[in-house]
């Protein structure tokens, strides 16, 4: 059966309405591209997947009656607990020293909402140094590598997407990998899926010879780890522990020894960091327990009464805000990665998708949603992990989480808030070290100089009267 016959048999004959207008080369290109897509997922299976995702999205019978906060055996806070933090840090540093830790960065997003055509990791948030998110993170990685006296460079696996891969690699090459060993940085692409119309029945063309494709969501990480040989590479390097995070968090602690030590000490195979909700109305996903299994529940799925409920300490009962910052044991991935790829559900996102109209031989850029993009969520595997093997570590928001989501001038999670969070944290470290920082002055502390406030003793008594960047 030819590729065209396969698609027509699967109800996608509309893709070929322009067939007679195509040149021989264009026909070959169209069939080649369609064939590559069919090799990943047959078009009839894709439609079936989309129909199920639409059904789940329209299901209003979600039961939250068995929703509870995580049990204390799986939930711990290190806020204002320096002794516990030190204990976990030492365990994590030992693992780093032995070369057992790898870092996975999800960096497939573009800076479109920020007004940039570059990958989001290339974005300059306006620090005095002018550093990009990638550079800030690379310096943190190099610093913790030195602090731990790691026996080998910490592998940094960077998941890009088709639109960001080339630009990301070029950026790293231009910046000479920010001083890191080139061999420790591994790029790999997340998968893509074709887009469908709003009914979820017909595939959309982006050009005369190509389908519209889009990244398969952050949950596509699991299939990419499996299909791109990343897990195999980790096993080859004798990695036992993985720290995963998203590129847009300017305060992220790469290969955080405290987080890794928390998982090791408690025998957790999958763990996640959380910060406290700002207030009951904050629009953020929550880490919780449903039917005695760990989960992430959307803020829209719980009632106002549940959102405002407090515990005996006066804190919000449901307060563990999801920041997509996870720990995985390699043993868990070896055992379950293939199963997760088979059972994870898909979700729909209705989008304004530029398409090629092959009847009119014209391109169309819609002003309202005209199609569906399918995606998977990384937390959809949580319920498949036994509660006894799942942990959540609550950390201080101002120390570890300030995401860059929105354009300059918006209400929050923008370049201004990210910049302020980074500068305020570094300035507080200097003050704790005994520096004299004048009122209103903010100082940028380079990640090359300090990972979490250490090594700043030499600035005791030093007066800072103007905004500036401190480099090592």
From TrEMBL:
Its EC number is 2.7.7.23. Pathway: Nucleotide-sugar biosynthesis; UDP-N-acetyl-alpha-D-glucosamine biosynthesis; UDP-N-acetyl-alpha-D-glucosamine from N-acetyl-alpha-D-glucosamine 1-phosphate: step 1/1. It holds the Pfam family UDPGP. Keywords: Nucleotidyltransferase, Transferase. The keyword Nucleotidyltransferase applies. It comes from the Eukaryota. It catalyses: N-acetyl-alpha-D-glucosamine 1-phosphate + UTP + H(+) = UDP-N-acetyl-alpha-D-glucosamine + diphosphate. GO terms for molecular function: UDP-N-acetylglucosamine diphosphorylase activity. The keyword Transferase applies. One of its GO terms (biological process) is UDP-N-acetylglucosamine biosynthetic process. Belongs to the UDPGP type 1 family. This is UDP-N-acetylglucosamine diphosphorylase. It comes from Lachancea thermotolerans (strain ATCC 56472 / CBS 6340 / NRRL Y-8284) (Yeast).
């Amino acid at each position: 059966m030819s590729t065209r016959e396969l698609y027509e048999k699967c109800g996608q004959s509309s893709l070929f309405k322009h067939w007679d207008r195509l040149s021989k080369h264009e026909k070959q290109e169209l069939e080649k591209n369609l064939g590559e897509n069919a090799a990943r997922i047959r078009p009839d299976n894709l439609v079936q997947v989309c129909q199920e995702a639409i059904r789940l999205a329209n299901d209003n019978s979600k039961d939250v009656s068995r929703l509870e906060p995580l049990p204390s055996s799986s939930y711990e806070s290190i806020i204002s607990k320096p002794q516990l933090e030190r204990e976990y840090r030492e365990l994590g540093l030992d693992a780093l020293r032995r070369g057992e830790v790898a870092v996975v960065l999800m960096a497939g997003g573009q800076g479109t909402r920020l007004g940039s055509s570059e990958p989001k990791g290339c974005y300059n948030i306006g620090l005095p140094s002018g550093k990009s998110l990638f550079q800030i993170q690379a310096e943190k990685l190099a610093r913790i590598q030195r602090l731990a006296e790691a026996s080998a460079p910490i592998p940094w696996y960077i998941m890009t997407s088709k639109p960001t891969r080339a630009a990301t690699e070029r950026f790293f090459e231009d910046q000479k990998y920010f001083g890191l060993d080139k061999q420790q940085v591994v790029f790999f692409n997340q998968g893509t899926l074709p887009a469908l119309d709003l009914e979820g029945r017909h595939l959309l063309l982006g050009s005369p010879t190509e389908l519209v494709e889009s990244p398969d969501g952050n949950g596509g990480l699991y299939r990419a780890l499996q299909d791109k040989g990343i897990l195999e590479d980790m096993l080859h390097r004798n990695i036992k522990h993985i720290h995963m995070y998203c590129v847009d968090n300017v305060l992220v602690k790469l290969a955080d020894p405290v987080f890794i030590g928390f998982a090791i000490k408690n025998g957790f195979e999958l763990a996640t960091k959380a910060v406290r909700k700002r207030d009951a109305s904050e629009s953020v996903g929550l880490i919780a327990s449903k039917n005695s299994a760990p989960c992430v529940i959307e803020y829209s799925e719980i009632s106002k009464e549940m959102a405002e409920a407090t515990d005996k300490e006066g804190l919000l009962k449901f307060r563990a805000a999801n920041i997509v910052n996870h720990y995985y044991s390699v043993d868990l991935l070896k055992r379950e990665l293939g199963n997760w790829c088979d059972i994870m559900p898909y979700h729909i996102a209705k989008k304004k998708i530029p398409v090629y109209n092959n009847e009119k031989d014209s391109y169309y850029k819609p002003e309202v949603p005209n199609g569906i993009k399918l995606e998977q969520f990384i937390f959809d595997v949580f319920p498949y992990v036994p509660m006894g093997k799942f942990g959540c570590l609550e950390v201080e928001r101002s120390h570890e989480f300030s995401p860059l989501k929105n354009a300059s001038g918006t209400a929050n999670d923008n370049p201004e808030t990210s910049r302020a969070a980074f500068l305020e944290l570094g300035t507080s470290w200097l003050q704790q070290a005994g520096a004299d920082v004048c009122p209103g002055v903010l100082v940028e502390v380079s990640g090359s100089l300090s990972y979490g406030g250490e090594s700043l003793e030499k600035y005791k008594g030093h007066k800072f009267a103007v905004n500036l960047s401190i480099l090592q």
